Amino acid sequence: MVSHNEILEMYRDYVDPKFTLKNFTLEEQAKVIVAQRSNNELDTTKLKNEFPELLPIKESLIEYVFQPNQKTRAS
Fold first, then answer.
1. Which residues form the domain of 50?
2. Is 31 inside any structural domain?
3. Residue 36 placed within a domain
4. Gene3D superfamilies from the xrefs (predicted)?
């Protein structure tokens, strides 16, 4: 599983070191959205059995999204 913040941190680390992130408080969020967030995690067991070479999500994001677009040296 990977969180929204983790993706934004990877973006900052690999693409734009000047990128800043400010999280909403739950109260601020409630003022701008119509419905509460629903975070879901899907079971990937069948997918992993069918395609055992699949990387975990964080590794896959780094290898196929962030490294090809890398503009900074990742920490």
1. 1-25+43-75
2. no
3. no
4. NAD(P)-binding Rossmann-like Domain
Tell me which residue of 12, 32, 15 sits closest to 67, measured CA to CA. Answer: 15
pTM, 2 dp: 0.73
What's the number of domains the chain is made of?
Answer: 1
> pLDDT-based confidence at 72, cuts 50/70/90?
low
- The tens digit of pLDDT for each residue in 34-69 reads 888 778 888 999 999 999 999 999 999 999 999 998
In 3D space, the residue among 15, 29, 17, 27 whose CA is nearest the CA of residue 68 turns out to be 15
Query: Does any domain span residue 35?
Result: no
Asked if 55 contacts 63 with a C-beta cutoff of 8 angstroms, the reply is yes
Extended strands (E) in the chain: none
- 20: its two tokens: 């800043």
Give the whole-angstrom CA distance, residue 30 versus residue 1. Answer: 24
